[in-house]
Structure formats: structure tokens, C-alpha cells
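--- STAGE predict ---
source: upstream dedup step, 1 unique chain passed
mode: sequence only
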Amino acid sequence: MKATLLVTAALCSLMSLSSCKSTKETKKEMIIATNNEAQKEVFMKEGYTSGIIVHSEEEGDCEWTIKLEDGRHYESMSMKEEFKKNDLKVYFKFIPQRRMSNCTKASPIEITEIVIG
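--- STAGE serialize ---
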């Protein structure tokens, strides 16, 4: 009796853990299918920051930055090539970095998650 109860509890726990991942993936798929304002609201609730990828060729500027709505710029030294598109809307999570920036207008960050918006 106790063994059956233990096995049942273990199976329920395993099913719960495996269903969490699929729910999260389904949620992101649903977000992409919605309009921009609803999409932004959902991402913001999940702790993402919204921004636009900006390309610059000015001397002293970083080549690629993420510009926030308030005008601040962030620099990521590890931005993947697929995100290096001027005016690309993105949602991202980041960790501020304590290092010198490569440009004058941007603060250095490490991107932990990024999604095209």
C-alpha cells in the first residue's frame, strides 16, 4: 500500500515537472501570435525589458546597442548575429556588468535571455 502510494506520488511529481516546460513553451508561442501591446504586457510581467536594436557607425559608438524607450542604451559583447538587425524589436533579460564600456553612450550588460518581439 505504501509502495503504491509512493510510486503514484512520484509519477504525479514527474508529470507536473514535465508539464511545466511544455506550458512555458506554449505560452511563448501564444505570445508571438498576439498583438504588440498584449505581447509587451506579458513579457514585462515575466521580467523582460523591451528595446530596439540600433546599429551605429559613428566614431566612439558601439556598433550594436539595445535602445530602451527612455533613451538609455545597453551594450552586449555577446549578442548573437541573428539579433544584429537595425530597428529589430526585442525583449530581453540581462545582468549589468562592472566593466568599462566600449562606447560612450551605452552601459555594458550580459544578455541572459532575448526574444524577437
